[in-house]
Write a structure and sequence with these properties.
- By secondary structure, the protein is of the alpha+beta class.
- It has a domain of 125 residues.
- 50% of the residues lie in helices and 11% in strands.
- It has a four-stranded antiparallel β-sheet with strand order 3-2-1-4.
Length: 199
């Protein structure tokens, strides 16, 4: 030994692995944005014996906008031949609380998903699940109000034009179901992001 201490070479620590796409805010943010934008498309459609009578967007249901009627089934004699969008005031409804909650939670979830705080990511996950749940509540609430068959008391003589064997149904469009899926997917992406941030 010559009195000199052995030198140790410095080995840098290996870099931490990249979080991957699930560790970023992009997937959840995009899924929330898709769910919100789908509110601008038709969510529900009123049909008589399988023929479309009226439809409304998710935003229209949330704000209580008038349902857009169609005169394709009965021609211009439908509701007196006037502008079908303005004739029947009974088609206007109050704002639906379930649609309002779903839209509001979707917007909140979108905003929270853009942050880097873990607590916010957890809140965004819950917002996504509750948004989807509120849309399911909307579907149950609207279907509950549909009357079938239509009676003389609530059709204002409309049954006399097309007969008494009317079956009024309320169907939800694919855009509605895609919105439900989008919010659930957004919640899943938030969960994956939380898992990624723990590594």
């Amino acid at each position: 030994m010559n009195g000199t201490e052995p030198t140790t070479s410095y080995v840098p620590a290996p870099p931490s692995p990249a979080p991957g796409i699930f560790g970023t805010k992009i997937p959840s943010g995009v899924a929330f944005a898709v769910g919100i934008l789908l509110f601008l498309l038709p969510f529900a459609e009123v049909k008589c014996n399988g023929n479309s009578l009226a439809n409304n967007t998710g935003l229209g249901i949330a704000t209580g906008m008038e349902w857009k009627t169609s005169n394709s089934m009965f021609g211009n004699d439908f509701m007196g031949g006037a502008n079908p969008a303005k004739v029947d005031n009974n088609q206007k409804q109050d704002p639906n609380i379930y649609a309002i909650i779903a839209l509001a939670l979707g917007i909140i979830g979108f905003a929270l998903s853009l942050t880097n705080v873990r607590a916010s990511m957890g809140s965004a996950l819950i917002s996504g699940i509750l948004s989807a749940g509120a849309l399911i509540g909307l579907m149950i609430d609207l279907k509950k109000d549909v009357k079938t068959p239509l009676t003389d008391e609530d059709d204002n003589g409309f049954a006399d034009k097309i007969g008494d064997n009317m079956k009024i149904t309320l169907d939800f469009t694919p855009w509605f179901y895609i919105a439900v899926i989008a919010f659930l997917v957004a919640a899943f992406f938030c969960y994956k992001r939380i898992q990624s941030s723990k590594r």
